[in-house]
Amino acid sequence: MGDTHLISNKKALYPVSDFLRTYLSRYGRIWADSIRYDDLGRFTNAIPVYDEKGFDTLWSTVLYSDSERTEIHEKLLNAYAILKADGDISITKYLFIDRVDQCNHGNTLPFRVRVVNRINENFDYFYVKKIDANRIYGLELEHILSPNRINYFIHRRTIVEEHIIGIPADAFLKEDLPITDFDRVRLAKEFVKFNERCFVSLLGDMHSGNFVIELTRDFEKWHFRIHSIDFDQQSHHWRKEVYLPQFFHQNDPFLQLTMQNLAPENVLQYQKEERSLIANRVRVSHGRFNALMEVMREDIISTDSNIERLGAQLALHYRDNRFETCDTMGEIVYQSIMLLLESSAPATSPQTRI
Most buried of 24, 181, 198, 324, CB within 10 angstroms? Predict the structure, then answer.
């Protein structure tokens, strides 16, 4: 069963170094002029947002004075144009900002912006958040190592992120858990692969509130894919279990589903498959992974104590002493990927993991 107390304290926000900014500029992640997080903080009131069943969503719609609203909405539309069309403001001709919400919990108190097309009432979301180096590294590693492409940009101390489509996993567990044997096997397989990706890249805190389920209909029922949506705990915590979604009690239904529908040899097979896919993505990244690692291996995104303790745990886990000599979290991630490239075999037997 999952551990209920994996992360007890919020982490500090780590600044984006000049070297990381150079990397981000190289790959088109920096924009010279856009909305700032502090701009959205100039609201005069906030109203709680409840779901259709009357439960508090932990988001509040924020309200601005007339003079502030015009300026802020214009900047938000410009930010949306940057995300969707490389700054071509003409795409916003028929768009308007319908709502700005702020999350009342979490590490960075993000803002969620709802954009609506006035012609057909179609809508989209994007997010404005405080900048944090851990989050940036998480987004970049997700973009390179996972099957999911990530679209975002930064402006000074602000990060603007595209909405990641999917059903929040905690809501999925309540309402959409598949009932056919075939679908349960497919979902269990995806959870094993997601568990493996998080552990290899050291993406932490993936409880069911921090990832979504994307469903795609194909000619044989449904295909499931799990997307991370929160990257605040990328390579920061000292506990190995933080980087394994199976250990969060919120994910117990996924764990039980896996244990009930997959034999140990199937788990081992899917772990091997995912590690091989990650290795192939690194090989075809055209140097982007190496460029990222050059920066991340020198950056400070955690404490010395966290680095030392996690390195010792991974050295024991992998039976490889190279982790004990790592001086940064980036170096630990690098060694994890190097180990994967050397051999696509899973780190442990299925008896000690899912």
Answer: 198
pLDDT tens per residue across span 281-307: 999 998 999 999 999 999 999 999 999
Sequence ranges of the domains in the chain: 18-130, 167-352
Strand (E) or helix (H) holding 49: strand 45-50
How confident is the model over 291-350, as pLDDT tens digits? 999 999 999 999 999 999 999 999 999 999 999 999 999 999 999 999 999 976 444 544
- Contact between 102 and 59 under an 8 Å Cβ cutoff? The reply is yes
Taking the C-alpha atoms of residue 101 and residue 167, their distance in angstroms, rounded to an integer, is 19
Tell me the pLDDT tens digit for each residue of 100-118. 999 987 667 899 999 999 9
Burial class (CB in 10 A: 0-12, 13-18, 19+), 305: exposed
Residue among 192, 212, 193 nearest 145 (CA):
193
Q: What is the DSSP letter of 11?
A: P
d(CA 288, CA 142): 12
Residue 129: its H or E element? strand 123-130
Three-state secondary-structure class, residue 314: helix
Please give the radius of gyration of the chain, using alpha carbons only, rounded to the nearest integer: 21
Mean pLDDT of the 232-242 span = 96
Contacts of 30 (CB under 8 A, 6+ apart): 21, 24, 153, 154, 155
Average pLDDT of the chain to the nearest whole number: 92
